[in-house]
Design a protein that fits this description.
binds flavin-adenine dinucleotide; 18 helices; about 5% strand; single chain; DNA Cyclobutane Dipyrimidine Photolyase, subunit A, domain 3; globular; 3 domains; Rossmann fold; 5-stranded parallel beta sheet
């Protein structure tokens, strides 16, 4: 099924799904009906990931349509993303470790024949596990898997195929249209038993048959015991990063990036007189993921031009830092505003760019959405603690 890659499509999909976001969602959300139109889940994750539409908009719409009781499950799922993002934001060390592990394991693939063979068989859908091989192809061709498919895929990868979870997460990250540094890496850690220490997720053939409506026979034996992945040193939470305020009198431009593509719904502290965006998503995304992100970016550029009544300059991704400095200088800007990016590759790029721009006397100021600033501090511990803050997050003041 096509996934919304413009804000208009995302809003239309939300409106279409809203009637099902109440008790019907709670009762049927676990069913994985396979590729093709899905009616029991919203399939909004690619749009939410790029913030063509925000968690706040989606959660509030569900609340307005059904009330907190009936929409509780859907709102909670939407808030899992806010929770994971906050959790990683407060523990950037987990992201650094994941990146280092992927690098180490990818170089091990060159020398460890057993690992390389198992890895290649999994990635080429050659494991003889019917559901797993199907999901590999589904992921590659559509860029999406149902939540249960993701859970079972990760469990089979770790406990049956005995492959390192980090390589599975990297495979997901390359292909998922909704690839989110936090939701992806932390969900894999959760399945492996690293996130809630000692609590693993073990896939069962019977459950896979049941949630897939009998689409899979699952004759190949699956692991019967989830041997926990060896524990890692604990990463303690750090405080939420304080952001320097924007200079209200500095001539300012907006740098648009794929972490937040609805600039017209943010509040900008200074008038925006020029806009810049990169020409393509960075990293090593698979084709469908790159296409989705680039279409979403093109849509945001159009909306931003209209909203701010200013032209948008597209900069080459490879030389973005120099391009931004030259653009700002030409446009007479001394300040660039940009949406805050949670821990991940874009945040790393923003940090590097801030230093490069400072050398030219240009300030780069990140603007964090109030939803993130309110939600993330509650994500230091488990989701159970976070959950208690959801009603107030969705409707500040009403439940407080
Ligand atoms: C191993 C693994 C990896 C995952 N990687 C990602 C990822 O990279 N990006 C991502 O957005 N989700 C990820 N998820 C969570 C979840 O599978 C997807 O968000 C969900 O399947 C998207 O489908 P949907 O939009 O129809 O969800 P719906 O059921 O309609 O839920 C609505 C929205 O809530 C959010 N959401 C729902 N469940 C979760 C969850 N468990 N964690 C975080 N957010 C959630 C999504 O934004 C989703 O669009 C992962 C889950 C697992 C088990």
């Amino acid at each position: 099924m096509p996934f919304a890659n413009t804000r208009a499509d995302a809003l239309a999909r939300l409106a279409q799904f809203l009637p099902s976001a109440g008790r019907a969602y709670a009762a049927t959300r676990n069913r994985d009906t396979g590729p093709g139109p899905r009616t029991n889940v919203s399939a909004l994750s690619p749009a939410i990931r790029r913030r063509l539409i925000s968690e706040e908009e989606v959660a509030q719409a569900a609340f307005r349509a059904h009330g907190m009781d009936a929409a509780e499950k859907y709102i909670q799922e939407v808030c899992w993303r806010s929770y994971w993002r906050g959790h990683l934001e407060l523990r950037p060390g987990l992201w650094r470790r994941y990146l280092a592990d992927v690098e180490r394991l990818e170089s091990r693939l060159a020398n460890d024949r057993g690992l390389a063979t198992g890895h290649a068989q999994a990635l080429s859908a050659n494991t003889d596990i019917d559901c797993f091989d199907f999901w590999v192809e589904e992921l590659k061709s559509t860029g999406y898997l149902h939540n249960h498919a993701r859970m079972n895929f990760a469990s089979i990868w770790i406990f049956t195929l005995k492959l390192p979870w980090q390589l599975g997460a990297a495979f997901f990250y390359r292909h998922l249209l909704d690839a989110c540094p936090a939701s992806n890496s932390l969900s894999w850690r959760w399945v492996a038993g690293l996130q809630t220490v000692g609590k693993t997720y073990l896939a069962s053939a019977e459950r896979i048959r049941s949630v897939s409506g009998g689409r899979f026979a699952v004759r190949h034996p699956l692991a019967e015991f989830a041997e926990p992945v060896p524990p890692e040193p604990v990463v303690s939470p750090v405080p939420l990063r304080a952001l320097p305020p924007a200079n209200p009198s500095a001539p300012s431009g907006l740098w648009l990036h794929t972490e937040d593509l609805s600039p017209e719904t943010s509040s900008w502290p200074v008038p925006v007189r020029a806009i810049a965006a990169v020409d393509a998503i960075g990293g090593d995304p698979a084709g469908p993921k790159a296409d989705h992100a680039n279409a979403a970016l093109a849509d945001a550029v159009q909306r931003a031009e209209q909203h701010f009544d200013a032209p948008c300059v597209r900069l080459p991704e490879a030389a973005m830092e120099d391009g931004l400095a030259a653009w700002a200088t030409d446009a007479g800007l001394t300040q660039i505003l940009t949406p805050y990016a949670a821990t991940g590759p874009v945040a790393d790029r923003i940090a590097a760019t801030r230093n490069a721009l400072a050398a030219h006397g240009i300030a780069l100021v990140e603007i964090r959405r109030p939803w993130d600033s309110r939600a993330w501090p509650h994500a230091a511990r488990g989701f159970f603690q976070f959950k208690g803050h959801i009603p107030d997050l969705v409707n500040p003041g009403l439940f407080g």
